Amino acid sequence: MNANFKWLNKVRWDEYGLVPVIAQEVGSNDVLMFAWMNRDALTRTVQLGEAVYWSRSRKKLWHKGEESGHIQKVHEIRLDCDEDVVLLKVEQTGGIACHTGRHSCFFQKFEGAADDGVWQAVDPVLQSPESIYK
Question: What is the pLDDT of residue 3?
Fold first, then answer.
């Protein structure tokens, strides 16, 4: 499908043909989520202007928001210095990026010491997952 897109060759794909992707919110710079892309996902992201990822568990392309309606509109795509991580600067439709109904997937904060620490949920659920995924 994308053999003519030479820019894809600059990305250092892993042995499975994937690259890690960080989605960061435009404006706030909040890190919303981490996911994976293959060549088709990155190509479709560029073509649509919306985030398309590769679901490793479902083994298929996943247009972010296809079920929830929480689409990520891509404002900018960057490649890190080692050319093996992609950063998407996105506008998160509805303000919810996480399947738990939170703004960000990174809602658990480590608190305490190494010998008795805990992961504490510090961000609220904005919408129940049951109402998002019907």
Answer: 55
If 0-12 CB within 10 Å is exposed, 13-18 middle and 19+ buried, where does residue 106 land?
middle
CATH class of 15-124: alpha beta
Task: From residue 85, give the alpha-carbon distance in Å to each of 22, 50, 72, 93, 111.
Answer: 8, 18, 18, 23, 28
Position 133 confidence tier, pLDDT thresholds 50, 70, 90:
confident
> Tokens 């689409």 label which residue?
71
Q: How far is CA 5 from CA 11, 21, 87, 108, 114, in A?
A: 12, 19, 19, 38, 47
User: In one letter, which amino acid is 30?
Assistant: D
C-alpha triplet 54, 120, 23: angle, nearest 5° = 25
Domain boundaries, the chain: 15-124
pTM equals 0.92
